[in-house]
Amino acid sequence: MHGFRFVEVQKSFGSNRVLRGIDLEAAQGECVVIIGGSGSGKSVMLKLITGLLAPDRGRVFVLDAEVSAMREEDLVPVRRRVGMLFQGGALFDSLSVFENVAFPLREQGGRSEAEIRAAVEEKLGDVGLEGIGDRAPSELSGGMRKRVALARTIAMNPDIILYDEPTTGLDPANAKRISLLIKNLHAKLRATTCIVTHDMECARIVGGRFAFLSGGRILVDGPLRDIEKYDAGELRAFLGAEGGLE
Ligand SMILES: Nc1ncnc2c1ncn2[C@@H]1O[C@H](COP(=O)(O)OP(=O)(O)OP(=O)(O)O)[C@@H](O)[C@H]1O
Ligand SMILES: [Mg+2]
Predict the structure, then answer these.
(1) Strand 217-222 and strand 57-62: pairing?
(2) What angle is formed at CA 245 by the lines to CA 230 and CA 45, rounded to 5 degrees?
(3) Are 189 and 202 part of one and the same domain?
(4) Are both 62 and 173 inside the same structural domain?
(5) Using N-to-C axis directions, what is the helix angle for 142-154 and 172-189, rounded to 10°?
(6) Is residue 180 part of a domain?
(7) What integer pLDDT is reported at residue 90 of this predicted model?
(8) Which ligand is closest in space to the CA of residue 53?
(9) Is the Cβ atom of 51 under 6 angstroms away from ligand 1?
(10) Taking 50 as the threshold, does the pLDDT of residue 246 lie above it?
């Protein structure tokens, strides 16, 4: 079974040909880091997985179901199995931390108040924030807000977790902390994980498999050491610009 799979996917916006033939698959439970420059189409790829966008050509599969062929109403049960930490990861500022994490659980329904409380406490524990449920998001640091957003993302026990630039806007210490948290959550939850980032430090910490997106295609797909050996000028320039090869 696949976590997700792109087959010859193309996506344009007007004359802007963003994805020109993407072939990429992740086995269930695998962790894939997509690296690429700003505007290369990383967020578009995640939106194709969640069915928020449809490809012009090619096919996108999630848990072996073809989301690119689904009607909006059929996407609802698939989306429940996919958690997404959005670029920016906005919290509801009028709700407490507890209610933010409880939100998707209440929305889905079918759980008692005790079950919701237990689930929220567990997920806040998973991100290292136990006991802060009563706080307001405005009282938290940027790194803590990110972790609350992450607790909300994993509240539904998703089979697939997508992270869009999880370290953007954080100082280096908090960026490192979030990166380690993502790695530990993957080890614990074993959800198929896809991280898109242009933060090479985050990519190195999370590790696993790397896909380099450039010019609308996946240029390299493999462990970081393969990528670093690969002599594509563009990739070397990118890695150099984003913190250098070691
Ligand atoms: N809904 C849309 N309508 C029109 N153009 C779009 C839309 N979504 C994305 N694009 C364009 O597609 C290209 C890729 O966008 P995308 O957001 O995927 O980039 P990215 O790789 O995530 O960049 P960043 O690292 O800055 O987040 C950009 O040129 C963007 O302007
Ligand atoms: Mg983006």
Answers:
(1) unpaired
(2) 65
(3) yes
(4) yes
(5) 20
(6) yes
(7) 81
(8) 1
(9) no
(10) no
Q: Find out whether the beta carbon of 11 lies less than 6 Å from any atom of ligand 1.
A: no
Number of domains in the chain: 2
Quote the domain boundaries for residue 73. 1-81+160-246
For residues 101 and 140, membership in a common domain is answered with: yes
* Residue 232, pLDDT score: 63
CA 13 to centroid of ligand 1, rounded, Å:
9
Query: Which atom of ligand 1 lies at the shortest distance from residue 196's CA?
Result: 22
Asked whether 18 lines ligand 1 (CB < 6 A), one says yes
C-alpha distances in Å from residue 43, one per residue of 53, 81, 86, 173? 10, 19, 9, 24
Task: State which of 132, 157, 182 marks the end of a domain.
Answer: 157
Can you give the pLDDT at residue 244?
A: 46
Query: Does the beta carbon of 42 sit less than 6 angstroms from any atom of ligand 1?
Result: yes
Q: Is the CB of 15 under 6 A from ligand 1?
A: no
Distance between Cα 214 and ligand 1 center (Å): 13
Indicate if 71 and 113 belong to the same structural domain: no
- How many CB atoms neighbour CB 18 within 10 A? 19
Residues 176 and 69 in one domain: yes
Q: Are residues 185 and 128 in the same domain?
A: no
Q: What is the pTM of this model?
A: 0.91
User: For residues 5 and 8, what is the distance between their CA atoms, to the nearest angstrom?
Assistant: 10
Could you read off the pLDDT of 68-124 as tens digits, one per residue? 999 999 999 999 899 999 877 689 999 999 999 999 999 989 999 999 999 999 999
